[in-house]
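Hi C.,

You asked whether I'd gotten around to modeling the 256-residue construct. I have! Everything is below, sequence then structure, no commentary in between.
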Amino acid sequence: MTNEFPVVVTGAAGLVGGLVVDGLKDRYDLRPTDLHDGDLRDRAFVDDLLTGAGAVVHLAANADPDTTWEHLRGPNADAVANVLDAAARTPTVSRVVLASSLHAMGGHLDAGRTGIGPRERSERIGTDLPPYPCCAYGATKVFAEQLGRVYSDTHGLSVRCLRLGGVAERPMAASWLGGWLSFDDVVRLVEAALTADAVRYGVYHGISANTGSMWSWASARDELGYQPRDDSAGHAHAVIDDLSGADDGARLAHLT
């Protein structure tokens, strides 16, 4: 990918959006936008936003894992559909980076812990496993991933879905250690997804290089060239033990 065309960044006023804009602004012509600029559920607004753009980093969403479908449908389903549809109809747009979440796979943690699911706790959770959302929020992220696949298959759009872990300056508790994604690494991950050339469609787990994590980020390394530099192990001595006997992000409410 070249820097010939602007890169639209939605959700630019959010935590991840702000990090991405600040981290990439010196190397890319960014077109950041957030709700105060317009509503992504408005097709005309999205069409105008993407005009002349070369790529989209779609980060806007309702990220509350405890909220209801009523509050998720607009930002997490309708807006995603509009962005993908507009991208497919905009001749200059070649790729879309979609923010997904580890919540799309959170059911594997619970199933593995109880011994009733397809994955034993001694094995890592990779993108080879089928989606298993743990909540309505996670289900909206699975929807976004699968709609991205449809647009990739039917329109030739390159779509890269990033299942972001818990984005924070440092892990907030023991349950963050496995799924933590540092501020610097989230920028590295998004840039890797934005610049990888040989990907038509892919889904990737987005975490830092966390020692002992149940989440595998191997496909992000192999297909996107993602190289995280931070490790939650360096903070393990300083976090609170918020879940007795639990590990590796068992409380997915902390994750993006």
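If it helps when you're writing up: The chain is about 35% helix and 15% strand.

Thanks,
B.
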